[in-house]
Each structure stands twice: as structure tokens, then as C-alpha cells.
Design brief:
The radius of gyration is 22 Å and the shape is globular. The N terminus is likely disordered. It has 14 helices and 12 strands. The strands form 3 sheets. The chain has an 8-stranded parallel barrel, surrounded by 4 helices.
Length: 480
């Protein structure tokens, strides 16, 4: 490649610029239903907010989209109360009190006490508010400020974070609350929405290196649970490659060359403390970065400029040079075996550090693709299958390594005893720790009459309290 003189900005002397990477073994939890609400996890709060319950989630107010559409004047206030702490003064009271809501410092303190080192944070594309078509799309505003608050608290506790693009523009899966909108009209796999997802990626990559609040972000996950049938995800393989290249383009323009292949880029670094000026040079990137990647980076600039004023974030305009070597983010994908029908291999997109994610819920074994080989919903069948699990080896043979299990829990298709759930927790932890580690779904579940006994098998904190999960995540109830 020809040598180019780019006005690249070096990384700041901020914590955000020097990434420590993943811990040697990932022990973590998902922060589900915090910045992306799935009403089944907190039904009483959802109904109290004004949401509804129904068998078909597309037929009532059972998603963030429908909630925002139904309550356009109060949606932001309602969600801000859910996200963090709000100030309230009861009638006839002389003073205010503060109420903890879904995720707060007390949760972080429990994570530290339990030895957790990683969180996966499910996010909707609407956390970058300028990407939302407000005439046709309806979502709450204000989530980014709460994300920054939570990341700071986690960072102070030494916990690293994965930014998980959990709900994609246009919806990536039909009839799923986790996409933010329950609909059969899946439109993510289109050029327009792929582009919006790439712009989201560019913004999040820039913030991860420039914003001190993002100092503990080590990875960005491209798409949570794409449709399993690759025939229904046209263009997804190209998107995987462009996702990685957007991350690496932003990093290169910030003075962070990829760990592999950097010697072939032929770039020279010239310091510029204004990142929007640096990103504006995207059209001069080496040929490895195609026009769509350059366009996504350029489209992120006005969004970052607006955020610099709104947050405010002075580092967008001025940050100092670090004397340390900044680390690249990990790009993160669901593994190749998540899909069938000749899917694209995300390993083919790798350029710099990359990690892979697999999800396994035995309560859904009716779908042979999720847990093949489990013939019967019995204790013995579950344990036998998990004991012989070969996903780590199978993925590694296709270049999908390191692999972590980013979603798993304790639900079963049968009434599980306390004794079995202790074995079941041990078995899964043992199996998944053979890879890069594991992240439990979810850190908490509402305990209410409407939620019933859901927390028993879906909440990490409740699982520890009940003795199914050990207080030290590296240990088992029964080492034998």
C-alpha cells in the first residue's frame, strides 16, 4: 500500500486510552433490562410504569418501542426513573429521598463481593439518539448519560465491560422483546440499517477511546443473536467485515494501529488533539477501508460534535498525548455455529483482537440448533449433554477462538429441585470455563407476584443467595 500522511491523533493520557483487555478468565453477568428493558424480567415495574402484558408481545405495550409510542410526553421521565436513582418527595413531607432502581452502586458492590470481573451491557441502537428516525421510530432518550454513569461505577470497581449491540436498527429478530420492538417486520438486514449500525459502531468506538467514562470498555459486540438461518440474513457476512473495519478505522485515525497488519498500512502519525478533525480524514484511509466504512466514520462526526456539547465531553475537542501504548478494542461476534445454512465465518473478518460469544439455554432445547443432542428434559440428559459439550473445540477448529459463553442460566424444561440446580450450576460453569469464561443472564430478576419464581433460575444474585451458585465464581459446590 502507498504510504499516506494522515493527520492522526494519538490517544489521550486518559484511562480510556489504555485498555487493559479481558481478565485471564471471564466471570460475569449481563446487565439485562437496564438500558434495554425486557418486560418479562420486571413485569410488576413494567405494569406500574404503564406497560402491558400479553401473549403476543406485538399486540400490546410490551416493548420499549410501543411504550414510547404510547407515552411520547412522559417516556423519558419514566425510563430515567427505571435506569437509576430518582428524587422523590412524598405528600406532606419536608425532604426528598432517593430511591435505587434497576442498576445502582449497590449492585456493583455485590459484584465485587462475589468476585465478578466482567459485565456485558445490552444496548439498543437508540442510545445514539441521532440514529433514530423520530417520525417512525419511538424510543426513550437519555440512556447514554446513564451508561456513562454505570461505566464509571464499574470501572472504579475494576470491572471491565462489553458493549453489546443487543437491539439493532430495523430489528434483527422477529417477535423478540430484546430487540426493543416486537414485530415480524425484520429490516435490519438491509443496506440502510447496516449503515446505521456501522455509524453506531463508529460512535461507540470513538467514545471508548476518548471518553474517560468508557475507560473499562474492552469490546464491542456487533449483533446479539442474529437470525439463526443464514438464508434470512443477506449481507451479514459483508457487515461483519465492515464492522471490524469501522472499529479499526476509527482507532487508526486516533493513532491506534491494529495489532496485526499495521505494518502493511504504511501510515505516518501526525498529532491532532481534535478527534473530529482526525475522523474527517477517513476519506484518505488506505484502500483496505472501503467506501462504506469511510462513510460510516464520516457520518459519526456530527453525532460526536453534538455529544461533545450535550454531555459535555471536552475530550472530543482537546485531549493530550499519552506516553503509553493504547490498546485496540476487541471486536466481538456471535460464533459461526450460532447460524446454519452456510453462514459467513466471523473469523474471516478478524483484523486485530477478536473474541466470540455463544449462548446456551437448555430450556429451549425444542430447537435442535440451540442444544443439539439433548433428547429428553431430564436431569441425566441435561448433565450428560453439558458434560460432553464440544462447542469450544468445534468453534476453535473454525477459527472462532477465544470463545466465551455470553448468555446462560439455570432454567429447565422440568421442575428442578434445589439439589439439581446446584449440580446444574456446577456443570455449566465447569464446561464454559474451559473457554474464555462465562457471563450469566441475568444479574437480577424482579421478585414480585407477577414475576413469580422467575428469579430462582434466571437471577445470578438470587442464585448465589439460594446456594446454587458459589460466592467465588471460580469455585464449584462439588469439585468432584
Amino acid at each position: 500500500m502507498h504510504s499516506l500522511l494522515l493527520g492522526l491523533s494519538l490517544a489521550a493520557s486518559l484511562l480510556s486510552s489504555v485498555k487493559a483487555g479481558f481478565p485471564p478468565k471471564i466471570y460475569g453477568v449481563n446487565l439485562g433490562s437496564w438500558l434495554l428493558v425486557e418486560p418479562w424480567m420486571l413485569p410488576a415495574e413494567w405494569v406500574a410504569m404503564g406497560g402491558e402484558q400479553c401473549d403476543d408481545c406485538s399486540k400490546c405495550i410490551a416493548s420499549e418501542f410501543e411504550f414510547a409510542k404510547a407515552y411520547p410526553d412522559t417516556v423519558d421521565q419514566s425510563f430515567n426513573k427505571h435506569w437509576y436513582i430518582f428524587r422523590s418527595r412524598p405528600a406532606n413531607a419536608d425532604s426528598y429521598f432517593f430511591r435505587n432502581t434497576w442498576f445502582s452502586q449497590s449492585d456493583v458492590d455485590q459484584f465485587v463481593e462475589l468476585g465478578l470481573n466482567t459485565v456485558r451491557i445490552p444496548l439498543g441502537y437508540w442510545i445514539v439518539e441521532d440514529l433514530v428516525d423520530r417520525k417512525n421510530e419511538f424510543y426513550p432518550r437519555g440512556g447514554l448519560a446513564q451508561l456513562r454513569r454505570g461505566l464509571k461505577q464499574l470501572s472504579q470497581a475494576g470491572i471491565v465491560a462489553i458493549l453489546d449491540h443487543h437491539a439493532l436498527p430495523g430489528v434483527q429478530d422477529p417477535q423478540q422483546q430484546f430487540t426493543g420492538r416486537c414485530t415480524t417486520d425484520v429490516q435490519f438486514y438491509t443496506p440502510y440499517n447496516y449503515h446505521r449500525a456501522l455509524v453506531w459502531t463508529a460512535v461507540m468506538t470513538a467514545l471508548s477511546h476518548v471518553d474517560p467514562a468508557f475507560s473499562n470498555v474492552v469490546a464491542i459486540e456487533a449483533v446479539n443473536e442474529p437470525i439463526m438461518d443464514a438464508n434470512q440474513t443477506p449481507g451479514y457476512g459483508t457487515f461483519q467485515k465492515e464492522f471490524v473495519l469501522v472499529v479499526r478505522a476509527v482507532e487508526l485515525l486516533l493513532g491506534i494501529p491494529p495489532k496485526t497488519g499495521a505494518e502493511d498500512l504504511g501510515t505516518k502519525v501526525q498529532i491532532n488533539a481534535n478527534i473530529t478533525i482526525s475522523l474527517g480524514l477517513a476519506k484518505h484511509l488506505p484502500p483496505i477501508f472501503p467506501a462504506e466504512v469511510q462513510s460510516a466514520v464520516l457520518d459519526a462526526i456530527p453525532i460526536l460534535l453534538k455529544l461533545a456539547v450535550q454531555l459535555p465531553l471536552k475530550e472530543i475537542f482537546n485531549f493530550s498525548v499519552s506516553n503509553k501504548s493504547p490498546e485496540s478494542l476487541y471486536t466481538n461476534f456471535m460464533d459461526i455455529n450460532w447460524q446454519h445454512n452456510n453462514p459467513a465465518n466471523p473469523a474471516d473478518a478478524a483484523f486485530g483482537p477478536q473474541i466470540y460469544d455463544n449462548h446456551l439455554y437448555y430450556s429451549y432445547v425444542a430447537n435442535i440448533l440451540i442444544a443439539p443432542g439433548v433428547a429428553d428434559p431430564t436431569e441425566d440428559a441435561y448433565l450428560k449433554h453439558n458434560c460432553n459439550l464440544d462447542r469450544i473445540e468445534t468453534d476453535a477448529a473454525l477459527g472462532n477462538s477465544p470463545l466465551y459463553f455470553g448468555e446462560w442460566a439455570l432454567p429447565t424444561q422440568f421442575a428442578a429441585s434445589d439439589a439439581f440446580l446446584r449440580k446444574w450450576a456446577d456443570a455449566q460453569k465447569r464446561a464454559y470455563s474451559k473457554g474464555a469464561g462465562w457471563i450469566f443472564w441475568n444479574f437480577k430478576i424482579e421478585k414480585s407476584d407477577l414475576a413469580g419464581d422467575t428469579a430462582r433460575q434466571w437471577s445470578y444474585l438470587e442464585g448465589v443467595r439460594l446456594g446454587y451458585l458459589t460466592k467465588d465464581p471460580s469455585q464449584l459446590n462439588d469439585p468432584n
